[in-house]
């Protein structure tokens, strides 16, 4: 029998928020209860594609967005050939490197180098630098980029090898006067930039291969690096990077008061023609990269590429109208809609921060502006902050003592670490989050903070082991956010005030009160009463370590703007 419930206006907003927070949990609950005799098999089969649109809808959404961001007013005044070296900017929309290459040439050669170093091992502990799930995501990003470039009259040249060897060879073969690329900030990427620039200087081009009709002497192609990975441009900051505030709040207030966010770059409808290429290359499979193929059979399955990214923005902001409650729901842990889930596409550069900003402003103009619409921008500024911090502090982000050279004692016991990595600690909240990471390449923002705190504070394990394992697994991995956030979580970050302990009982009671998340990822807990799922006692595996502070709340540091939400849109 249907029952109509009429809520008074004063309670409607709160009811609506709670309903949306648990909408996906309820969906999984319904699926599980459909066959009470087989709850585990039902739970283990639940996969949610992100975005949740079909291929026709995603294509249509992307095409309409490209059309809105097209402009035929730009003048093309260059000569010869230019190269676009795609790196972590796997998009067409708001890609300044691509735009400048088009303006400065008669033909543009887009290229992506599959660098074997990306599939080697991490620096300290020898984990795979790129796990199979992120590799598959990048492969999908490349396939989508190639397709979108072809729609613009170009293509994508796939090359296997080191960029510093490939780019000079291509520049010589095609007579390219300039290689355009987006600039990175961390040491490994900077080393590649320097080597590529050095290699290009050794190439000698004839006068006819320049980008100016007045050139009368031989010359070398140049590497033109462009800043395009942040909401606020590096050149627009009201201070030098060396003077960057060590407290996020000071940074945020300063840029909000004194900086203007630049508009998205609008490209012409056609970017062709490309130079004549005999073989554009083939995008490899995961197996061809030396990895074993892994399929997501549970949890969220993210689709790689700009088309999927633009569709997710439309789905979350406009179709589902979830932007207006983002601040209230963002600390969820189960399902696709408690947060934006933009971070994998931001990390691959399939999605521009400035595009998100412009969509938020359009939403505020056409629908409403509130704390939630602002909070998406607040999180993007956090992402900017860690990018700039990586310039200021360099390799100290990867050192045991962090930017402040803090001296703490951690151990590196492999057996203990493996209990954490494999989700076998005896604490359901930890185990569920770690199993989700391994199975899907994603973990909620709240989950990341909890498992970090447990590893470094309760287990006493070297935080870099956790950071490098995240580097392996995360779809949304980038060095600035990952290592910046782990230094914060370990209490060795640049802000000395941020040194927080997360009580597992309190986190479980607050953010997974019915045990829906732990039951989904640890299905043997599903038959237990809801209040027992996070606290199963002897009916679950033995706990590897006692909690440092148990359920005490007195050790929680005062809430700051960091507020435990340091990943920002890295994983929202």
TrEMBL record:
Record carries keyword Cytoplasm: no
Photolyase/cryptochrome alpha/beta domain residues: 80-221
Binding site for FAD: 326, 339-343, 379-386, 476-478
Swiss-Prot/TrEMBL keywords: Chromophore, FAD, Flavoprotein
GO MF term list: deoxyribodipyrimidine photo-lyase activity; DNA binding; FAD binding
Region Disordered: start-end pairs: 551-572
Cofactor: FAD; (6R)-5,10-methylene-5,6,7,8-tetrahydrofolate
Listed Pfam families: DNA_photolyase, FAD_binding_7
Biological process terms in GO annotation: photoreactive repair
Gene3D superfamilies linked to this entry: 1.25.40.80, DNA Cyclobutane Dipyrimidine Photolyase, subunit A, domain 3, HUPs
Record's cofactor remark: Binds 1 FAD per subunit. Binds 1 5,10-methenyltetrahydrofolate (MTHF) per subunit.
Site (Electron transfer via tryptophanyl radical): 410, 463, 486
Function noted in UniProt: May have a photoreceptor function.
Family: Belongs to the DNA photolyase class-1 family.
Protein name, per record: Cryptochrome DASH
Originating organism: Gossypium stocksii
Taxonomic lineage: Eukaryota, Viridiplantae, Streptophyta, Embryophyta, Tracheophyta
């Amino acid at each position: 029998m249907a029952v109509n419930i009429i809520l008074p206006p004063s309670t409607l907003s709160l009811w609506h928020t709670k309903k949306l927070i648990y909408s996906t949990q309820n969906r999984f609950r319904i699926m599980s209860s459909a066959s009470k005799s087989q709850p585990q098999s039902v739970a283990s089969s639940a996969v949610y594609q992100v975005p949740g649109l079909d291929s026709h809808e995603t294509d249509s959404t992307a095409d309409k967005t490209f059309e809105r961001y097209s402009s035929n007013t730009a003048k093309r005044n260059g000569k010869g050939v230019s190269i676009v070296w795609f790196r972590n900017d796997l998009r067409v929309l708001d890609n300044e490197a691509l735009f400048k290459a088009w303006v400065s040439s008669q033909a543009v050669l887009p290229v992506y180098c599959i660098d074997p170093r990306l599939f080697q091992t991490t620096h300290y502990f020898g984990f795979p630098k790129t796990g199979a799930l992120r590799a598959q995501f990048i492969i999908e990003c490349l396939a989508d980029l190639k397709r979108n470039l072809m729609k613009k009259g170009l293509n994508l040249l796939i090359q296997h090898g080191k960029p510093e060897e490939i780019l000079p060879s291509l520049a010589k073969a095609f007579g390219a006067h300039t290689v355009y690329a987006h600039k990175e900030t961390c040491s490994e990427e900077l080393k590649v930039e320097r080597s590529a620039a050095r290699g290009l200087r050794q190439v000698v081009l004839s006068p006819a291969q320049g980008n100016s009709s007045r050139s009368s002497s031989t010359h070398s192609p140049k590497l033109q690096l462009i800043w395009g990975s942040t909401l606020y441009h590096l050149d627009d900051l009201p201070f030098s990077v060396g003077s960057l505030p060590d407290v996020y709040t000071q940074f945020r207030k300063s840029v909000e008061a004194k900086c203007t966010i630049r508009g998205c770059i609008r490209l012409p409808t056609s970017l062709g023609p490309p130079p004549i290429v005999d073989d554009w290359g083939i995008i490899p499979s995961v197996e061809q990269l030396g990895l074993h193929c892994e399929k997501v059979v549970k949890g969220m399955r993210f689709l790689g590429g700009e088309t999927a990214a633009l569709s997710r923005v439309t789905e979350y902001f406009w179709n589902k109208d979830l932007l207006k409650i983002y601040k209230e729901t963002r600390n969820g842990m189960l399902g696709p809609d408690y947060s934006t889930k933009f971070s994998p596409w931001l990390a691959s550069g399939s999605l521009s921060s400035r595009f998100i900003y412009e969509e938020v402003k359009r939403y505020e103009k056409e629908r409403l502006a509130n704390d939630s619409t602002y909070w998406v921008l607040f999180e993007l500024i956090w992402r900017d902050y860690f990018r700039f911090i990586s310039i200021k502090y360099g390799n100290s982000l990867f050192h045991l003592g962090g930017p402040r050279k803090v001296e703490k004692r951690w151990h590196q016991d492999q057996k203990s670490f493996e209990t954490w990595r494999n989700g076998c600690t005896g604490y359901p909240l930890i185990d569920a989050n770690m199993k989700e990471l391994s199975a899907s390449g994603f973990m909620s923002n709240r989950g990341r903070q909890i498992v970090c705190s447990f590893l470094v504070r309760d287990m006493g394990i070297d935080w870099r082991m956790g950071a490098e394992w995240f580097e392996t697994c995360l779809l949304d991995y980038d060095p600035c956010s990952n290592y910046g956030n782990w230094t914060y979580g370990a209490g060795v970050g640049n802000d000395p005030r941020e040194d927080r302990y997360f009580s597992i009982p309190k986190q479980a009671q607050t953010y997974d009160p019915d045990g829906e998340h732990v039951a989904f990822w640890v299905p043997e807990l599903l038959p237990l009463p809801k209040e027992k799922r996070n606290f199963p006692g002897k009916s679950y595996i033995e706990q590897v370590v006692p909690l440092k502070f148990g359920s005490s709340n007195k050790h929680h540091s005062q809430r700051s703007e960091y507020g435990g939400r340091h990943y920002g849109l890295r994983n929202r």
